[in-house]
Fold:
Amino acid sequence: QSCGVSTLPYGCTSLVGYSRLSGARCDVSTYAFKPGCDSFSGFSANTNDSCSLSQDKSPVISSLTGSRTLTPKKSGTWSLAFYDPNGEGLMPEVDWGDGGFTGSSIPPVQPFLQQYITFSHAYLDSGTHEPLFTIRNDEGYLAQRSLEVLVE
Structure:
């Protein structure tokens, strides 16, 4: 059930990688979101604009690579390749899933120019963590990817 919005799985928002209704993981790796959008109403809570995906405005994450297994307190590294079709300034950020957050800012560049950034992080506790990597452009459009990291 999608409530007429094809950009997000039902119950997902652009801020959370899990459905608020079912608790199921939202596959955010293939979606780009407008600010304030969710799959409940089809309109942005921020601007009341339609949440229909505008492909020429959203940044693109080309790849995400990095540590998949770590030991507690040992730092891992993750690299993102990304671009913005309009050459807007970009804000890469990571929600590490353990209360930690990292953000950055990149000035505007040539449209479609592939850019790269590397993040480092150490998890203190054992378990499975799922950091959420986000690239947001100056207009507020974003793309997200995540992966599982086993800390043992």
Observations:
- Residues 1-9, 28-32 have pLDDT under 50 and may be disordered.
- The two ends are 38 Å apart (CA to CA).
- The chain is about 0% helix and 35% strand.
- The first strand starts at residue 32 and ends at 33.
